[in-house]
Amino acid sequence: MKGRFVTPGKTFEAVDPRTGEVITRVAEGDTEDIDLAVKAARHAFDHGPWPRLSGFERGRIMMKLADLIEENIEEIAALDTINGGKLFAHGQVLDVPGAARTLRYFAGAADKIHGTVLKLSKGLQGYTLREPIGVVGHIIPWNFPTILFFTKVAPALAAGCTMVVKPAEQTPLSALYYAHLAKLAGMPDGVINVVNGFGETAGAAISAHMDIDKVSFTGSTEVGRKIMAAAAASNLKPVSLELGGKSPLLIFDDADINEAVNIVFGGMFFNKGEICVASSRVYVQEGIYEKFENKLVEKAKSWVVGDPFDPRVHQGPQVDKKQFEKILSYIEHGKREGATLLTGGKRVGQKGYYIEPTIFADVKDDMIIAKEEIFGPVMSLMKFKTMEEAIKRANNTTYGLAAGIITKDLNVANTVSRSIRAGIIWINCYTALDVDCPFGGYKMSGFGRDCGLEALNQYHQIKSVVTPIRDSPWH
Ligand code: ADP
Questions:
Q1: Using a 6 Å cutoff on CB, does residue 145 contact ligand 1?
Q2: Which GO terms describe its cellular component (predicted)?
Q3: How many CA atoms lie within 13 Å of 122's alpha carbon, on the beta-carbon side?
Q4: Is the pLDDT of residue 1 over 80?
């Protein structure tokens, strides 16, 4: 079975969100297929070369995979566009090069994994070994099928782990291509096992599996909770969870309004609002509120929604019908709760899952649209008076993934950054991310950090080795 594509009996549809039409059918993995994949990964971990190679050799194969990805940028970007509705232009310059960069970053770290030397008490000395944690289960969401695949896979590979990867059922295509490219790059059989399938079946089989040593998940808070429960009820495997958000962006009176409007727009509507850090709660200080609101509405008029292959388009279709309907129902909630619809609020066209960039004003902190993660192009605009009030309201959420501050006052920027309980704070920018930047949540946005060298730690066990020093006069 190892090292080749197999065809389980069942298949499911991969759909093009531009039209709602079926692109192709994909093999659907279920519990037994996850089991086979885990067996392959287990064998590759317990007996195969990958964990036993030098870090340098692992890094070399990862570098080769990065090269192959770069050689196929157009094809990969096109897969995520036809299947995920993502902008083709972004795929070409952000997602796919970002995946190659992530592989290279962790490839470079693979031969720099060290333990520490311990000077223990009386007559003992010791050291720590950083060992790969074992077989990892990665459960990937659909909003960044390429970047998030490698955000999870690359540090686990560098650490020497083997793995089973389950892409989201909405976006199964590009991951199959990565399995193919990994083989071409010389990745030993059984190291990366991609199984497409649904969350309640294939995903649940991963989190409950007795022979998976760790699960790394990105997705909704609700599913994160199920994964943690399944891990607790099976072999107590550690989990890392990167979950939802309802991130605040605070704009102070001294901000450059045009610049702020651009940052806010990008923060909210980038990737059609299907991004866990979306700046969905925008708090504007009262002195500039009116001007800001007018400019924001003006900006919405120049925002083009349409075919994600068209280079003039800013926003493609939502990923699928379910998501599309969920977003439209949140918009109805907003109207019913008494928020003022400033712009947007409707679907675009009659075909596919396109939605206008939507902005609500007069939003109260306790309205559903201000509290729940919508995961679509819907912004809540609110007014504040003082910094203290803004901090309090920004923190008034169960989430803690990200926050933004726009001000020229360094003191305000520093105070607010330290006061907001979130995993990343952006000052005078938003969604500025790099593989070197640890990324993860506080509160119900999860725990564990993807990216940066912090991510490597998630895939290691620390072993202490202790030995006596006989006849030493030094105690
Ligand atoms: P969204 O709600 O944004 O669609 P999810 O959190 O449901 O995102 O999905 C993210 C990933 O989690 C997908 O790969 C999905 O198949 C998987 N998933 C969904 N439900 C479960 C579950 N019960 N156990 C494990 N994985 C799941």
A1: no
A2: mitochondrial matrix
A3: 0
A4: no
Written as six digits, the tokens of 350 are 């009659």
Provide the 3-class DSSP secondary structure of residue 198: coil
Is residue 196 located within the same domain as residue 210? Answer: yes
Identify the pLDDT of residue 257.
98
CA of 203 to the centre of ligand 1 (A): 7
* Ligand 1 binding pocket includes 196 (Cβ within 6 Å): no
pLDDT tens digit sequence for 41-51:
999 999 999 99
Residue 144 corresponds to which tokens in the numbers above?
């960044």
Say whether both 206 and 309 belong to one domain.
no
Residue 355 belongs to a domain with what CATH number? 3.40.309.10
Q: How far is ligand 1, taken at its centre, from the CA of residue 274, in Å?
A: 15
Q: What is the pLDDT of residue 101?
A: 98
Does one domain contain both 262 and 396? Answer: yes
User: Please, which pLDDT band fits residue 475 given cuts at 50, 70 and 90?
Assistant: low
Structure tokens at 148: 């998030």
Q: Is 169 near ligand 1, meaning CB less than 6 Å away?
A: yes
CB-based contacts of 349: which residues, under 8 Å, 6+ apart?
none
Taking the CA of residue 206 as reference, the ligand 1 atom at the shortest distance is 25
Per residue in 223-234, pLDDT (tens digit) is 999 999 999 999
CA pseudo-torsion sign 321, 324, 327, 333: negative
Task: Tell how far the Cα of 97 is from the centroid of ligand 1, in angstroms.
Answer: 26
Specify whether 182 is located in the same domain as 219.
Answer: yes
Nearest residue (CA) to ligand 1, atom 26: 203
Q: Whose CA is nearest to atom 24 of ligand 1?
A: 204
Counted domains in the chain: 2
Structural domain includes residue 410: yes
Regarding the beta carbon of 204 and ligand 1, being less than 6 Å apart is answered yes
Sequence-ordered strand ranges (E) for 1-103:
11-16, 21-27
Residue 399 confidence (pLDDT) above 60: yes
Compute the average pLDDT of residues 406-418. 98
What confidence tens digit (pLDDT) does each residue in 315-344 have?
Answer: 999 999 999 999 999 999 999 999 999 999
In testing the pocket of ligand 1, which one of 223, 241, 321, 326 has its CB within 8 Å of the most ligand atoms?
A: 223
Range of the domain at 274: 248-427
Would the CB of 200 count as within 6 Å of ligand 1? yes
Q: pTM value?
A: 0.97
CB-neighbour burial class of residue 376 (10 A; exposed 0-12, middle 13-18, buried 19+): buried
pLDDT tens-place string over residues 91-139: 999 999 999 999 999 999 999 999 999 988 778 889 999 999 999 999 9
Q: How far apart are CA 226 and CA 316, in angstroms?
A: 31
* Mean pLDDT, residues 433-438 taken together: 96
Radius of gyration of the chain (CA): 24
Ligand 1: nearest atom to the Cα of 226: 23
> Catalytic: 32?
no
Has residue 469 been placed in a domain? Answer: no
Mutate to test the pocket of ligand 1, among 30, 83, 139 (most ligand atoms within 8 A of CB): 139
Confidence of residue 293 (pLDDT cuts 50, 70, 90): very high
Tell me the pLDDT of the chain averaged across its residues.
97
